[in-house]
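Can you give me the bound-state structure? Components:
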Amino acid sequence: MPLPLPRLLALLVLACAVALGVPTAAHADEERVVKVGTEGVYPPFSYRDPDTNELTGFDIEVMKAIGEEAGWKVEFVEAPFDSLFPALDSKRIDVIANQVTINPERKARYLFSTPYTYSHGVIVTAKDTDDITSLDDLKGRTTAQTASSNWAQVAKDAGAKVQYVQDFGPGVQLVVQGRVDAIVNDNIAVLDYLATSGNDQVKIAGDAGDETLEQALAFRKSDPQLQQEADAAIKKLTDDGTLAKISDDYFGADVTVKGGSEDVDVQASDSRTTWEVVKDTAWPMFVGLVKGNIPLTIISFVIGLALAIAAALARLSSITVLDWIARAYISVIRGTPLLVQLFIVFFGLPAIGIDLDPYPAAILALSLNVGGYAAEVVRAAILSVPRGQYEAATVIGMDYGQSMRRIILPQAARIAVPPLGNTLLSLIKDTALASLVLVPELFREAQVTAAATTEYLPLYVMAALYFWVVCYLVSLAQGPLERRLSRYVA
Amino acid sequence: MSNLIEVSGLTKSFGDTVVLQGVDFTAESGTVTALLGPSGSGKTTILRSMNVLETPDAGLVRIGDASIDFATPPDRRAVKALRARSGMVFQSHHLFPHKTVLGNLIEGPVQVQGRPVDEATADARTLLEQVGLAGREDAYPAELSGGQQQRVGIARALALRPEVLLLDEPTSALDPELVGEVLAVIRDLAAENWTLVIVTHEVRFAQDVADQVLFLDGGVVAERGGAEVLTDPREERTRRFLARMLDER
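Here's the bound-state model for the whole set.
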């Protein structure tokens, strides 16, 4: 096969440029924009109001009050708890408002405001577990915790094995299902959960130590000014009773002072039936699908396919170094988890000055992933075109680019479509991971509502249904496409 | 410049195997040159050297005013210029399966030569009529018989308006009953004074149409002359080869 070279390089550069998009960094100084990272799935502190789908909760309201007092323009960014600290490090957010407990390790890395919640840890077990009442009893048992939470460390220190979960709600499900023995968590969160869910399968089995824990806003070490402004605001809000009032609204007690959490009395807030919850969430999930998963899929697939063709041609090139680069690319992409690739692109690259917004970052990672997987498919398809076709194209005077574009690739497409269909279906489903790099999408909506309502099964099944319907429609389209590409085969 | 084609000192090895060791010939415009010889004698390599599908190790190829001396590696433009002088018909046609008959014929004229689609289409229809396939413009190659496919292959090569047509065993891949229709088309081309260089095993056909016969053996021209080479060979190995070929038929 003849050599690709300049054309191929141009294609590669183009694909990369498109994939990278334009790095953006907006810092307005007039009214400082402060990006606040929060889970959105941790009621009653940070969650979406089931009726309005608005972000709300104790931490959210406290943060809004602080922002107003300090003269900040507060923008909330929702992300899983384990993504919050990487997001803070990589300056995607400026502060975390999510019941972050102050501990020595965190103190070494981050700045903390004055605490705005005082609580203590409790141990949650299944209703009929009677041999766990204190931290000592956790030795050798299994607990479900969020990886980067303070409670995971508490459980580990007590000698428990820790099973990592994404947030509190799924952990409770594991306890109910008997897959883990207990959860260590904040007493306020647990009390709220019990009241909201009406779940009588679990109970508070005992205190996790007698230490009072302090929750505060976390800032970067390099950002002391924000911390100072926040402290000033918290002092003012404490003095004028604003914080006490917010706490009273949520907990019937003032958890912003020591000992206050003992009197917490939360009321069940959501009385909708399962069917109503499902019905109310269907639309936000659909919006997530249309604004998140589908555009991510389409854009990433197109760019990924361009990358795949470039990599396949590089693999087939007689220029050793191109072949070598393509092999390395394919090997790395296929040999590492997509989740890790996403995290490297979004949370890792800012460390070397490549600061992508959530959308471009997700598209870059997904495109690279598709490109790596599809490259070998495309290569095999190109190889399946008989050598005589190159010769026929050559003798009618075509150059490399023309013979690829007009003769070889159209024939290779017929061979490549069925396996590329599989790649596309995988991509559609992989877009569910985009919420981990802060892109709002379908499954994120399901998780948010599930956290607030504890309707896990119906909401997750509905998310699965959405994905299945989309994949089914795509596979329906594949048949006619295959027939069209094969119309010349007798 | 009385000769349209000039080939001299052509040598080519594939690894340790010497395929051509100094081949020379010339051909005048409007003549038919037939290359015959046992398989492995290098006749196809000569043809493929004439449009640089193979790059000879040394030697010169000239068609019309385009020539390449392979003493040094040829540059891209020289190769393009030489290729533009000839059309090629392959043993197994190599039609573009994803394009219709018409699409195959106008691909080169439109995409490479930049001719208007209307003009190329009109030309293509004339050529299809000439090879007896008028009305099959919209068929895909897979819908045609082997003989029809090869006739489209000939028409595709002619569509580029080459000065020389190179035919590489155009009937070898065909069922016996389909050979005749393809040979008839080539005979017509010869009658119309096209300049043809044809690698073939069809001895009787070569006798009929060839103005010049080159008998290849072991990478050299073992015997050359007019069509009489095939009826009254001087060389023993030519005689043996012909006896074997004629026996088989």
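A couple of observations. Chain B is about 35% helix and 25% strand. The beta strands of chain B are 3-14, 17-28, 32-36, 58-63, 66-69, 86-89, 164-168, 195-199, 212-217, 220-225.
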